[in-house]
Amino acid sequence: MGRWPLVGRGPELEAFASALADRECRGFVVGGPAGVGKTRLAEECLERAAAAGLRVGRATASAAAGAVPLGAIAHLLPSGVDLSDPVAGFAAVARALATGPGPRRWVLSVDDMHLLDPASAVLLRQLMDTGVLVLVGTVRSGEPYGKAVAALWGGDAVRRVDLGVLSPGQVEELLQAVLGGPLARRGLLELSAASGGNVLYLRELVLGALSGGELAEDGEIWHLREGRLPGTARLAEVIGSRLASADAAGRPVLELLALCEPLPLADAEVLAPPHVLAALEQAGLIRVVQERRRTAVSLAHPLYGEVLRAALPVLRRRVLLVEQAARVEARGARRRGDLLRIAGWRLTATGTADPALLVQAAALARHVHDYPRIVAFLEALPGTHRTFATALMLGNAFFEMGRWKEAEEVLAPAQEHAAGEEERIAAVLVRTAALLWSNTPSSVALAVSQAALEQIGTPARRRKLRINEGFLRVVAGLPAQGLALLEDLEADIADAPDINVWIRGAWMKPFALALVGRTGAAAVWARRSDAGHREVDEHALVSHPAVQRIPLVLALSEAGRPAQALAEGERGYGELVAADSMVRVWMAVFLGRAQWLAGHPVTARRWWAEGAALARSIDHAMALRPALGGLAACAAVLGDLEAAEAILAEHRALAPTPPGLVSAGEECLGEAWLLAARGHLGQARAVLTAAAGVARGSGHLTGEALLLTDAARLGGARETAGRLAELAHRCDGELAPARAQLAAALSAEDPGRLLLAADVCQAAGADLLAAEAATAAATAWSRAHHSRRASAAAHRAALALARCEGARTPLLATAPATAALTAREREITLLAAAGNASKDIAQALALSVRTVDNHLHHAYTKLGVTTRRELAQTLAAAPGGGPERARRPS
User: What is the secondary structure of 670-689 as a DSSP string?
Assistant: First the structure.
């Protein structure tokens, strides 16, 4: 890992370029705290000065060099200059530098110039004032310096920029550049939070994680293993020296904060007097925040706690935790979360705690969706204190963490020993969800629900199980059946007799509505369920409210509003990552699908890769199957056929599972698009048509429309246009009519209609469909010898294609180059260009070898080529048909 790229410093580099162009400018100073990249920016500035033809030099100030006059810059002084007379000597230095070889003007970089000795500072200022030298210096914020050094960056002739830490978006950009590929969101958020955006800390965390094997790649995306972030020895030394600057009297406060932050100011003052705390704050080691009437103290950086905890002896840690727990208890533990913290401290310190306290703490942890702590608290309960309520809470926590087997081991006995109908229903709600999301056949979960229904006599309670059955049937891939059971769900959670039942039903109802094409109603219901869930979240035993945004992503993307879908999904995914809920796997799946519909295969690949990795980690085949199918499709469309084949090999090895929220037919996207990329358009259409039949049979109308549209794009427009027109009448939103209009225009090969189709596809946010429609229009105009119209349509296609992240589809690759060919000739030339022999082409298309050769001969004549190699080169030169192979999204 050499020098890292410079990210997020564009405005500062522009400011330097402006300073360098200004002949009156004498210096450019970069300020900021330690580790934010001041030196890296100064290096980049110096390199740009050298590239502009200026002479450059480097110096680094230090405490040791500062003890010697001119010690930091002695290596830059011309030999033979006598500095015993400062006035004459300094003038001689200026003359020597100005008359040396090369340009008269120097650019000198001085790192940590706040450590310069006065003599060096005075000399540099004189050189700056004579115009011989432009100083590029770095200075650490908050460090003391003398008047001579202060003069270096004083006055209007010296410009200064101050660097802050990187934003999370800039951290993501930097890590992707460093790693050569995307990092999964959980790891990204963890590294961003742990480093605080400090580039030095981030670098050492990444190096430590790489060397320890905690940061690894699965071929598509990088993942950070859960647990403590490993750093490097250098990181520990840097932070250790920073902490060592604290007065010994303040060390106990730092240690306690490392274990229990944030602390009330009064608790910190128990361990250190106010002047010691003020010194810690002045040194940048602690942060004191006033919130209304409360004053809280925390460490100034997350990594300070890591280093402090690593150095704490076991008994010292125990004493600090027990004493702090006692202090909070003595105050009456009145603040929200106090019981949660006390239980955690006592459990960490002694391995046990009061059972009643553990149960209360688990309930509080549930309110903030802290599932690991729920498990820790409830597993520490003595057997005699375990109840139905604790079992239900524990089983639900296991479910949210993707620990299906453990959830069933807790929930099955809980249901069996439930006391009364309400307890039995509560157990069935959680247990059936956990069963269905595991790899258990959906019939098992439905059977559990049905068996419970037969034991319930009260109509109101039977209705709860009917709603749960609707939930199960939608998840099991039967949206119409589920919707029938959820049709009479209360519109407002305030009217619901059971909030947990309502939330489950309200989560699945918008899924079902969107899958059967009622996207408008689906979006309304998804927003309603999100608001209702958040209203009662503290009292509900259901996933984080952000799960309600998953069907919203589906509804908005199928309605032709992909930008809104992405915004809602990104926000919800961040919340689910923060809650560490494994249900986020479905958000990743649907964000990938939304980006596929938008025609953005690189971004779709990144989301599907994240979804696939999550699904593997929790053995969730229901989500893994569509994620792998989509991942392979993206790889194929990006020309990465080797990766597509490897992904499909994993997909084929999976055991059959219920179709789930994504139609089983959509799993075939990868197979179809890999066939298409290899030129087997007929086979690809057959796969897509069969898959569309599967989607239609299970009631996934939007899935059927997606698959039929892809078949139309691969040459099957005449066969699919009629059904897509029917689906456009049954599905609302802008995307369904756009799909139908595209298929009809492709079938008619009418350039005017194709351009209209491009317009409606663009309006629906389908960039790749718009590019293909405009490309097909250009081809049709070219075939009709309307060159000006063809050129205009090609320009429109290029504008849309620029947003498609390098997508290569057969229509884009072959339409311009093969405008003069018949449909059969185009299909055969694609297969031949992919390297298939005439015999294999004949077998694939059910033709004779002689017929294939005749078609090829006609195609060669029309295209002006004589060999298959020339044919492949001609197709590769077409827009979207380049030979490059993208290994992964970048």
Answer: HHHHHHHHTT-HHHHHHHHH
- b/e per residue 373-411 (b: at least 16 CB within 10 A): bbbbbbebbeeeebebebbbbbbbbbbbbbbbebbbebb
Please give the biggest Cα pair distance in the chain. Answer: 106
Q: Is 299 exposed, middle or buried (0-12, 13-18, 19+ CB in 10 A)?
A: buried
Distance (Å) of CA 428 to CA 389, 493, 498, 547: 13, 21, 14, 20
753 touches 773 (CB < 8 A): no
Per-residue burial over 33-68, b if 16 or more Cβ lie within 10 Å, else e, is bbbbbbbbbbbbbbebbeeeebbbebbebeeebbee
What phi and psi, each to the nearest 5 degrees, are found at residue 622?
-60, -40
Counting beta carbons within 10 angstroms of the beta carbon of residue 629, is it exposed (0 to 12), middle (13 to 18) or buried (19 or more)?
buried
Separation of alpha carbons 803 and 771, rounded Å: 9
User: What are the CA-CA distances from residue 306 to residues 240, 271, 301, 740, 784 (Å)?
Assistant: 10, 21, 10, 58, 71
Q: Are 573 and 532 in contact (CB under 8 A)?
A: no
Q: How far apart are the first and last CA of the chain?
A: 18
Backbone angles phi, psi at 253, to 5 degrees: -65, -45
Cβ-proximal residues to 311 (8 Å cutoff; 6+ apart), any chain: 240
CA 563 – CA 557 distance, rounded (Å): 8
Burial 278-292 (b: 16+ CB within 10 A, else e): ebbeebbbbbbeeee
Burial level of 454, CB count in 10 A (0-12/13-18/19+)? exposed
- pLDDT tens digits, residue range 429-441? 999 999 988 888 8
> H or E segment at 189?
helix 185-195
Question: Is residue 78 reached through a cis peptide bond, with omega within 30 degrees of 0 on the bond before it?
Answer: no
Give the model confidence (pLDDT) of 48-97 as tens digits: 999 988 888 888 888 777 777 777 787 777 776 666 666 666 777 767 66
Pairing of strands 263-264, 294-299: antiparallel
How far, CA to CA in Å, does 855 sit from each of 349, 822, 823, 844?
Answer: 80, 9, 11, 15
- CA angle (742, 747, 748) in 5-degree steps: 100
Q: Alpha-carbon distance 5 to 22, whole Å?
A: 27
Distances (CA, A) of 304 to 197, 217, 264, 712: 14, 28, 19, 59
- The residue type found at 816 is P
To the nearest 10 degrees (0 to 180), the angle between helices 823-833 and 849-863 is 90
- Alpha-carbon distances, residue 369 vs 224, 286, 315, 738 (angstroms): 21, 28, 31, 41
Give the Cα separation of 794 and 377 in Å (integer). 64
Residue with tokens 């709600």: 429
Cβ atoms within 10 Å, residue 244: 8
Q: Read off the pTM.
A: 0.84
Neighbouring C-beta atoms of residue 253, cutoff 10 Å: 24
Q: Distance (Å, rounded) from C-alpha 431 to C-alpha 837?
A: 56
With CA atoms as reference, report the closest residue to 189 among 593, 751, 724, 576: 576
Place of tokens 């898959």: 691
User: What's residue 98's pLDDT?
Assistant: 65
564-579: per-residue pLDDT in tens?
Answer: 999 999 999 999 998 8
DSSP designation for 102: S
